[in-house]
Amino acid sequence: MAGLLNTYVQDIRTQYPNNNDKNEWRFSKYGVLEYFKRSTTDPNSIVSSDLIERARNAEGIAIKIPVMDGGLVNIGNARTCTIAADENESALVDVTFATLTANLVMTPAQYNKNDIKYMEDFRKKWLKIENSMALHVEQLCAAKMDADKSSIWASSLVGGGSKYGALVGDAAQVFTNNQGFVFNDLPAIMMEGDFYGPQYDVIGSTSLLPYVSKLSAQGGGNAVNSAFQFQGMDFTYSNRITNGANKNATFYVAERGNFGIINQNSDDANAGRVTTKGTEFGTVFLDELGMEVGYTYYSECKDQSLLNGTGLGHLTATVFEAWQIHTNIALISAYNSDPSTNEGAVHKFEFVNGAS
């Protein structure tokens, strides 16, 4: 029987799935994307249901949003029979879509003698697509918010000689001695720019979290009460909001509803069409992205003997399945007729390491 030992004692493996690779499958949190989606569905959102519906079925067609410039009229001091015109100005805002795609392929026969089975491999590939799509859009949202930050601040608390000093890169500088009560000042800063809330969203770097946790925990029973200042504010955090040199935390503040995100899928996907050769189109919901996206699917006979660079001679003619996930994404921000003179809706703050 000893001669059978090598036959009986095979490679001892645990079954899959198991938890040993859990750190390979840790994904991020998408705080900026969360804010964009929350703003899109807010009652005061700049994204109307009409825009969402038109975009959904308008692939290949230019979409423009009609807007009107604000401002004031001239106030005179004498009546006149000659009334001068003071016309409103209108404009069209382009809605620009970016196409996103991701691929998923499967070779069913490779799983017959494999510790990893078909559905487990498919599930993990699907998780990668979900999170890769969400991460990509999160990065786009963070870039959009930073690009649209206001360079004009009406607040008396910001600027040369004031509490928060001159802007640096269009961001207010919050030095160590002012960090304890900066959130108490936020509503006043926003109101001086005629942004009256009453709800403000704070979208911060992950490094902002310990500041908020500490300050919000200092209630009335403490020597210094700093918890009162967080009413009317919602916080989200993202690793895509990064800190500059000598900065400990970064965050943006805006009234809810000033940003939006919409998507559109192909006509074929919306209609669920199938070609005469069996290629299928349809839609599927991506949980992490929070959107219905399109897909294309086909299967064929294919030589997969060099799958993953390995010699698999039994797969020279086998079933091959392929999916492509696709959608068009547009990010929208509130119209500003002249950002060089009009205060914008989103303001950036940086926690500076040191005293002012």
Explain the overall architecture.
The protein is an alpha+beta fold. Among the domains are: 171-258 and 334-352, 2-Layer Sandwich (hypothetical protein PF0899 fold), CATH 3.30.2320; 266-329, no CATH class. It has helices at residues 5-8, 31-41, 49-56, 118-147, 182-192, 209-217, 267-271; strands at residues 63-68, 90-95, 98-106, 171-174, 200-205, 233-238, 247-255, 259-264, 280-286, 291-302, 318-333, 346-352. Strands 3, 8, 9, 10 and 11 form a five-stranded antiparallel beta sheet that branches. A five-stranded mixed beta sheet has the order 4-12-7-5-6, sandwiched between helices. A two-stranded antiparallel ribbon has the order 1-2. Helix 6 (209-217) links the parallel strand 5 (200-205) and strand 6. The protein starts with a helix and ends with a strand. The relative contact order is 0.20.
Keywords for this entry:
5-stranded mixed β-sheet; 5-stranded antiparallel β-sheet; hypothetical protein PF0899 fold; 356 residues
Question: What is this structure's SSE topology?
Answer:
Blueprint: H1 5-8, H2 31-41, H3 49-56, E1 63-68, E2 90-95, E3 98-106, H4 118-147, E4 171-174, H5 182-192, E5 200-205, H6 209-217, E6 233-238, E7 247-255, E8 259-264, H7 267-271, E9 280-286, E10 291-302, E11 318-333, E12 346-352
Parallel strand pairs: 4-12, 5-6
Antiparallel strand pairs: 1-2, 3-11, 5-7, 7-12, 8-11, 9-10, 10-11
Helix pairs in contact: 2-4
